[in-house]
Amino acid sequence: MPELVGKSVGPVGYGLMGLTWRQNPPSQEQSFEAMRTALSLGANNWNGGELYGSPERNSLHLLNEYFTKYPGDADKVVLSIKGGLKKGGMKPDGSRENVRRSIDECLKVLDGKKSLDLFECARVDLATPIEDTIAYIAEYVKEGKLGGISLSEVGAKSIRKAHAVHPISAVEVEFSLWATEILENGVASTCAELGIPIIAYSPLGRGFLVSILTSHSLNAR
Fold it and tell me: Which stretches make up the NADP-dependent oxidoreductase domain (predicted)?
């Protein structure tokens, strides 16, 4: 069984983005039902983001509410959160000041209801050496406030640079029948060499495969 930060996870994870980052998000009741169903089916690796919504309402707020109602599920879930962008915006900022702001706010919103197993900057800040950004995040791991560090949307060179500063627990990149770049650009081979699990997002082609299957089902009726 796959492991993240020493904890067993299912082969399929659960992304929380659509529960808070859309024009008309589902109700809390609908979100809770989806989250509980995912967990019951073995999808205990959950991925959310400080950017998935607004500073006032994003994945962290929903998670706080969920684990307040279902505290027994907290230890069953391995939680990864994306952050590291300018507050309220989409510009990467890997400076010490912003990384600490991002992690501190994530922890504040979770309010101890759930530990932060993994934290990853949503994108690499080209203005800040990735080695520096990882060192800032590693301070929280050493303090016991964070389980580990993951990376999002990075190249092979960045993975090596980051891993040399602190062990990287996971790399999240797009991978599907329509997105196979990691097999040619060195990301997959680098992760295999360093023993870093790859978390593939949009494995169904951003809904493309689902839409085909749905259409086929409707036409067959």
Answer: 12-210
Catalytic residue ranges? 52
- Cα–Cα distances (Å) from 183 to 51, 98, 204, in that order, read 28, 33, 17
CA 56/CA 88 separation, integer angstroms: 9
Q: Please indicate, yes or no, whether the overall pTM of this predicted structure exceeds 0.85.
A: yes
111-169 tens-digit pLDDT: 999 999 999 999 999 999 999 999 999 999 999 999 999 999 999 999 999 999 999 99
CA distance 148 to 207: 30
- In a 13 Å sphere around the CA of 32, the CA atoms on its Cβ side amount to 13
Give 157's Cβ-side CA count (13 Å radius): 2
pLDDT tens per residue, range 160-214 = 999 999 999 999 999 988 889 999 999 999 999 999 999 998 877 666 555 544 4
Both tokens of residue 8? Answer: 């067993």
> What is the C-alpha separation between 147 and 61, in angstroms, rounded?
20
- Domains in the chain (CATH in brackets) are 3-219 (3.20.20.100)
Q: Which of 143, 202, 199, 145 is nearest to 168 (CA)?
A: 199
C-alpha–C-alpha distance, residues 213 and 208, integer Å = 9
